Amino acid sequence: MVFSLFPRQEKFFDMLEGQTSTLADVGVLLATIARVGVVDATLKNGVRELEKSCDEWTRKLMEALATTFITPQQLDREDTTRVATNTDTTMDLIEDAVKQIARYSPEELDKDLKEMTLIVAESVALVSATTPLLRKLTKNCLGDSREKMRSLEHRADALVDKIADEYCQRI
Q1: Residues with Cβ < 8 Å from 86, sequence gap 6 or more?
Q2: Angstrom distance (rounded) from CA 3 to CA 103
Q3: Whose CA is closest to 28, among 128, 154, 106?
């Protein structure tokens, strides 16, 4: 048994996992959008509700960070803040993108937008699945998640390059 002078604050891990679970849920909605090819009111409202839930998790995390001493054995205050705010920003950007697609209301999303939507869905699901690994805080605690995320980023970058090239060829 390891003795620690300061108790480990598991509540931060619980809250981060709660917050990133909203990303997993929005990923399911994004995959649905890609599959059906449109953003209807139900999907748009579902994304909005998940964004509100993510905002609430962020608020709870920030309040807890402001009132809790964080020990060196845990994620530090800056890292926890960075994860929480980046998760919230990601959710905000997803909601904004879904609102813009709904506003434009194409008859069906083109194949590139469907593909990018699936990449984002996979990425947020990976973030959510990886968050519980932060509890271990060892050198390789994230396992192969980094490589998977790098691969998703490369797929997204290649798709953006393809779209830009096609656009430039048309003008």
Answers
A1: none
A2: 57
A3: 128
